[in-house]
Design brief:
Layout: E1 2-9, E2 12-17, E3 20-26, H1 28-32, E4 42-46, E5 49-53, E6 59-60, E7 65-66, E8 70-76, H2 83-95, E9 99-105, H3 113-120, E10 127-130, H4 139-146, E11 150-154, H5 161-169, H6 178-184, E12 193-197, E13 200-204, H7 225-228, H8 248-254, H9 260-282
Parallel strand pairs: 3-5, 8-9, 8-11, 9-10, 11-13
Antiparallel strand pairs: 1-2, 1-4, 2-3, 4-5, 6-7, 12-13
Helix pairs in contact: 2-9
Bound molecules: guanosine-5'-triphosphate (GTP), magnesium ion and zinc ion.
């Protein structure tokens, strides 16, 4: 039998095949490898045991999902928006060549954040939507963009990812209490899982404060389309736009033609990746 992994609970996997969910185990070697089996994987099952993971179109570390068509980064005014996280999600999407959407949620309590988001991500290949899980405003438009695709909702804890899935599918899953979450750092959703409804397949994922973009230092600037288009105007061919002289990206940031805050976050991500490589090379 072949099918797709819809959810994974420690060593048990639920594989959808012939419109049914089958509870399966997995061969030892597949479990040991960290990225052995993930939600979204197409797998071969023999006698109730996953024996093989078929080649993936793409793979993400956090949330741990594969074969994704579109990433929806959810943000809200409360909890405070984390643009660093949005940037990292966008880097992953660029690297894996996956469509990227930013859903600004909770517009029923704040309608100003969307302007900031539009400014910050101007000219980039991203669709920015205003939604509210509470009033359901904007959800039809979001739904339209997700039709026929496997999408994943990602973003900080308590931005309303599960609330959006509930509102779209008229479900009644547990959502968290915002104040409790911020106080205790508790996540309400603990595992990624595919929800399927007609032509929609959506992965609701647990919120992460930090997410690792699986990119190397030489690849990161290529994951910034707004910087990549100016690379030929930089003095150095492989310019990282950090400490190189005559860098067009830095010039445009200084002139206010590229967002200063996005560039500062770029440096932060760049340094994080550089540090990780140093540690890796030492060991
Ligand atoms: N006012 C308002 N509150 C919302 C909206 N969407 C979600 N909330 C509230 O935000 C809180 C967190 O919602 P969740 O859906 O649990 O958030 P989550 O992103 O799934 O959080 P994790 O599962 O921890 O990652 C709950 O109290 C929701 O009622 C919205 O559109 N407007
Ligand atoms: Mg949730
Ligand atoms: Zn440069």
């Amino acid at each position: 039998m072949q099918g797709q992994v819809y959810k994974a609970h420690s060593n048990t996997y639920f594989v959808k095949s012939d419109n049914k969910l089958h509870k399966c185990g997995a061969r030892g070697v597949l479990k040991i490898k960290g990225d052995g089996i993930s939600v979204g994987d197409y797998v071969k099952v023999e006698r109730g045991v996953i024996s093989e993971v078929l080649p993936r179109n793409n793979h993400f570390i956090r949330p741990n999902v594969s074969n994704i068509d579109v990433i929806v980064a959810v943000i809200s005014a409360e909890p405070k928006p984390d643009f660093l996280l949005v940037d990292k999600l966008m880097i992953s999407a660029q690297k894996e060549d996956v469509e990227f959407i930013i859903a600004v949620n909770k517009t029923d309590i704040d309608d100003t954040l969307v302007n900031k988001v539009r400014e910050e991500y101007a000219g980039l290949p991203v669709k920015i939507l205003e939604v509210s899980a509470t009033t359901k405003s904007g959800l039809d438009q979001l739904k339209e963009l997700l039709k026929g695709k496997l999408s994943v909702l990602a973003g900080q804890s308590a931005v309303g990812k599960t609330s959006i899935v509930n509102a779209i599918f008229n479900l009644n899953q547990k959502v968290g209490d915002l104040s409790e979450k911020i106080a205790r750092g508790k996540h309400t959703t603990t595992r990624s899982e595919i929800f399927e409804f007609d032509e929609y397949k959506i992965v609701d994922s647990p919120g992460f404060a930090v997410i690792e973009a699986d990119v190397d230092i030489d690849q990161i600037s290529e994951c910034y389309p707004d910087y990549f288009e100016h690379l030929s105007e930089c003095k150095f061919r492989g310019c990282h736009h950090v400490s190189e002289p005559d860098c067009m990206v830095k010039k445009l940031v200084e002139q206010g033609k590229l967002s200063k805050s996005r560039y500062q976050r770029y440096l932060q991500i760049y340094n994080e990746i550089a540090k990780r490589r140093e540690v890796y090379e030492k060991n």
